[in-house]
Amino acid sequence: MSSACTSIKMTDKDGDLSFINKEATQWRDIPSKPIEYASKEETIFLSGGLTLLQDKLVEAALNSMDIHFIALPNPDFKSFQTGKAFGNRGQCNPTYFTVGNLVKYLQNLRDEKGLSAEEIVKKYVYITAGGCGPCRFGMYITEYKKALRDAGFEGFRLTSFEHDKGIFQGDEIKEDILDFSPTFFITLIKAIIIGDIINLLGYKMRPYEIEKGATDKALESCKEIVSKAFLSHSSLIKAMWKCRNLLSQVKLDRLQPKAKVMVMGEFWAAMTEGDGNYNLHRFLEAEGAECIPQPIINRLMLSLWEAEQALHKKEQLEVKDAKKIDFSNVKTRLLIKAGKAAVKTHFTLYAKAIGLHDYDIPDIEQLAKFAKVYYTLECSGGEGHLEVAHLIESVKHNLAHLVISIKPFGCMPSSAVSDGVQSLVTSRYPQANFLSIETSGEGAANFYSRVQMALFKAKQSAKEEFEALEMPEHIPQKINNYLYQPKSDMAGTAAALIKSLKN
Ligand code: SF4
Fold this sequence. Notes:
This protein is α/β, with parallel strands linked by helices. It has a domain at 40-179. The chain has helices at 3-6, 52-63, 77-86, 93-111, 117-123, 140-150, 182-205, 214-231, 236-248, 267-271, 280-286, 296-319, 327-354, 364-371, 386-396, 412-428, 444-467, 493-502; strands at residues 44-47, 69-71, 124-130, 157-162, 166-168, 259-265, 289-292, 402-408, 434-439. α3 (77-86) crosses α4 and α7 (182-205) packs antiparallel against α8. The radius of gyration is 25 Å and the shape is globular. The structure holds iron/sulfur cluster. The site of iron/sulfur cluster (SF4) has 12 residues, from α16. Residues 92, 94, 135-137, 266, 382, 408, 411-414 line the site of iron/sulfur cluster.
């Protein structure tokens, strides 16, 4: 032992080694004093962190089931700083932003709205996503608890969906305060799917709007219409038809050759719309690009695919000594099938009603085939093989002029694994214009400058692609109607529209 090591002393036990022969007991992170929590009826649920639209639709959807739910405001830099102040070191950005956002909200309830910390702890519950990792995702719940305790909210209740284990109601939660019934999940998924569809249309339209702000104004009205439909239990399909009429009134000029940029990467960094990714989507649009966002449905389909793979492996292991059918496997398989069918059916119905015609739900099996030459499919952390697959797909199908893979600083699955693999992919597909970029919560100038450099090349490609086409003598009006969405082998929207007129 070096002299440096011998100088290290145990701090907590002060040299007391009596614990060595004691039987190990389970450690639990429970409040130091017992707390009398509010009843199920008086409990208020909090959550957030999806896109702005989806957070609000989820709020309306859950309120429609008499669940008192409030969507937190979008996480901003103040949330990040609060997360850093109360969190452990070495966490990733989504943790700091989301944990900090919750603490900031509770501090506001205490300091501005006058509720006592005890009252807040008794009445409020936070719903989040959890999991076992393999990255720092596995530590999210512990992080929330640590930050909440240090901020003066010891005993605050958390409940989480664990995509690989189901639902964890929380150690301190004695009764089932939320009824995680099939209706609950279906209503939640409807809100997420509708949010995805409206967001996808917004990203298609905003770069081409003639009157600045017209698309956002129409989207805001769509949010109100769909929220009201949830709350009044009226037809969501009819609500989407109403949105279609509103969107049709937005005047577009779609013959501008804009660079199309696929934004993918770590789930939260690629999806959030705010300081968490330096407002990447809006920055790209301001720089003259059109974004292809990653809808949440992609992550949902990946989770279902992963569940199916896990089941398949389990069955293969069991088959050797199998004497009878394991009905729990049959039930799981049926549930996965039903989940897939429900997502696809609802997506198709709502997309048709509002007029999103050219978006196909990702075929994860096909994407796995693209990726498996490069990426071990069993590595299921973060977005698994999806990042690698998206880049290959974008080159093979000419989907974008630039692919940006965004991830929080030091993200294990995305920076350390996927980006390592992407170097091989880009060497095999040299035509790919690929940028991998990290967000640290600080240093926006460096971030923007790297994006601008990659975008310069993408803009050139978009211009060349458009100018190589012969312009028809007559341009029909349908070109500028968002409902006209021809499928094409051209990456740019303007080029795809012109080419469609020749077919
Ligand atoms: S995927 Fe990346 S950002 Fe997300 S929890 Fe894991 S390490 Fe952190």
